[in-house]
Amino acid sequence: GAGVSQSPRYKVAKRGQDVALRCDPISGHVSLFWYQQALGQGPEFLTYFQNEAQLDKSGLPSDRFFAERPEGSVSTLKIQRTQQEDSAVYLCASSFFQGPSYEQYFGPGTRLTVT
Amino acid sequence: AQKVTQAQTEISVVEKEDVTLDCVYETRDTTYYLFWYKQPPSGELVFLIRRNSFDEQNEISGRYSWNFQKSTSSFNFTITASQVVDSAVYFCALSGDAGNMLTFGGGTRLMVKP
Q1: CA-to-CA distance for A31 and A25, rounded, in angstroms?
Q2: Per DSSP, which regions of chain A are E strands?
Q3: Residue of B nearest to A50 (CA)
Q4: Average pLDDT of span A20-29
Q5: String of b and e for B44-56 (b: at least 16 CB within 10 Å)?
Q6: Per-residue pLDDT at B98
């Protein structure tokens, strides 16, 4: 079956621009996660949804970052007034069940470059 | 707070050598889960294994094996008879009662040379 898909795969933004990154999780997956991966580092948690409810946004680095999943399937991560330090790969992952024991399936990521 | 440390940032081996990737974790949770993921050059993280904190039995899957030791808070990964296709970045990760998210280590880049 289809895996997690993300679009665009690459995004170049000028500093100060707003960007929107899309994630299509595996159909039927309840849980959806966003992670940020800086070059040469491990992914870092940003936010978590269970269906349409955003249950944890403790990892969002600033109020410029906003995520939504209005119908419990597709999710969008929006970054307002992008800064150079926002340059990273943004990974989306989904899991069939809710809970820390279930493996997460990752998408290919969106590489954001802020110039 | 949870923390995962992968002290080896980069390992280079010649094909057919055995290689062990180290992972040390910190958590205050009684129940927790450990994972290994592989990130090939394409960038997509691929799930390899999950262990829970109550199951210290080692696991073998083909050329891959995992050694979980609670006494040393370690969850090491061994590849036997490495192949060029094993070249990737490998991440150890942890989740627990504090939340559903994964806490990742910094990753180990494995290069297998022919």
Answers
A1: 9
A2: 5-7, 10-13, 19-24, 31-37, 44-50, 53-56, 65-68, 75-79, 88-95, 105-106, 110-114
A3: B100
A4: 96
A5: bbeebbbbebeee
A6: 67
pLDDT for residue A53: 95
Nearest CA in chain A to B43: A108
Give the pLDDT score at B59: 86
DSSP class of residue B106 equals -
Q: Is the peptide bond before A70 cis (omega within 30 degrees of 0)?
A: no
Do B46 and B39 contact (CB within 8 A), yes or no? Answer: yes
Contact A100 B99 (CB under 8 A): yes
pLDDT digits (tens, 9 = 90+) for B68-110: 999 999 999 999 999 999 999 999 999 987 678 999 999 999 9
Instruction: Give A17→chain B minimum CA distance, Å.
Output: 25
Q: Coil, strand, or helix at residue B2?
A: coil
Q: Does B99 touch chain A (CB under 8 A)?
A: yes
Of A89, A91, A103, the CB nearest to B50: A103
What average pLDDT does chain A have?
A: 95
Instruction: Please report where in the chains the tokens 């898909």 appear, as a residue.
Output: A5
pLDDT above 90 covers what percent of chain A? Answer: 91
Q: How many CB atoms lie within 10 A of CB A74?
A: 14
From B52, which residue of chain A is nearest by alpha-carbon distance? A101
A-facing residues of B in 41-80 (CB < 8 A) are 42-47, 50, 52
Distance from CA of A109 to the nearest CA of B (A): 7
